[in-house]
Design a protein that fits this description.
Elements: H1 31-60, E1 63-66, E2 69-72, H2 78-85, E3 94-97, E4 100-103, H3 104-118, E5 120-122, E6 125-127, H4 140-154, H5 186-192
Antiparallel strand pairs: 1-2, 3-4, 5-6
C-alpha cells in the first residue's frame, strides 16, 4: 500500500480505529487490520483510474512488506518513486506537512469509506446505525467537501473556469487550461511527463455539489 491508517488521524479525515489498540485476546481481525484492508482496496481502485492495470501492477511491485510496513524495494524504479514521493514542484501522491501525513489517495479513500461506513448491509437491506442519545447527521456535506478537495489534488480546480478538453480518437490526450492554482495535480504531473507515464488510462472525475450532482 502507498498509504495506511496513519493518514486518517487528523480532524479533517479522521477515521476511528486508525490507531492501533491493545490486543485483548480476541481471535477476530483487529479493527485496524480491517481498516487497512479497506484502504488497500480503495487505493487500488484509484490507482487503476490513474494508471490502468499494467502500470498499477508495476508500481505496486516496487514495494515490499517489512515489519508490517510497505517500503520501497532496493532498486525500485525512479519514475514510481517520483510519482509517489514527489519530484521538483510535484509534492507526490503522499507527503508530510509538519507531522501531518497528506495524500490525494487519503481524500479519495475517506470519501468512499465514509459512504460505506454510513450504511450497513443486513438481511433486511441497507440500514443506518442509531446510537442512544445521539443525532444522526447526513455525511453528504462532509463527503462533498472532501471530494472536492480530492478533485483539486487529482485533476486541478479548473471546473469553475473555462476548460479545454482535446482528445485523439482513443482518448489518449487530455489538456486542461490552468487557473491560478500553483499546486500541481496528479494529472498535471503525469501529463507533463507523458514520455514516462502512459496517461491514456487516466479517468477524469468531476466535483460534486451538496445535491450529489
Amino acid at each position: 500500500m502507498i498509504i495506511d491508517a496513519q493518514y486518517f488521524k487528523s480532524k479533517e479525515l479522521y477515521i476511528p480505529n486508525s490507531v492501533a489498540q491493545p490486543n485483548i485476546g480476541s481471535a477476530s481481525p483487529s479493527a485496524l487490520l480491517q481498516l487497512n484492508e479497506e484502504i488497500d482496496s480503495i487505493e487500488h481502485q484509484l490507482l487503476l483510474d490513474m494508471l490502468g492495470y499494467a502500470q498499477t501492477t508495476e508500481l505496486k511491485d516496487q514495494f515490499e512488506l517489512i515489519d508490517g510496513e510497505f517500503v520501497w524495494k532496493i532498486g525500485a524504479l525512479q519514475k514510481w518513486i517520483d510519482l509517489v514521493d514527489g519530484k521538483d514542484e510535484w509534492r507526490g501522491l503522499r507527503y508530510t506537512i509538519g507531522g501531518k501525513k497528506v495524500s490525494v489517495i487519503a481524500y479519495y479513500v475517506f470519501f468512499q469509506y465514509l459512504g460505506l461506513d454510513y450504511n450497513q448491509y443486513t438481511t433486511n437491506g441497507m440500514q443506518i446505525s442509531k446510537v442512544e442519545n445521539s443525532i444522526t447527521q447526513d455525511p453528504s456535506i462532509k463527503q462533498v467537501s472532501v471530494w472536492n478537495r480530492f478533485i483539486k489534488m487529482y485533476i486541478g480546480d479548473n471546473w469553475n473556469n473555462n476548460v479545454t478538453i482535446s482528445t485523439n480518437w482513443n482518448g489518449a490526450y487530455l489538456s486542461y487550461l490552468k487557473n491560478d492554482s500553483n499546486e500541481l495535480s496528479v494529472y498535471d504531473f503525469l501529463s507533463n511527463n507523458r514520455d514516462v507515464y502512459d496517461i491514456s488510462y487516466f479517468v477524469t472525475k468531476r466535483p460534486l455539489n451538496y445535491f450529489g450532482i
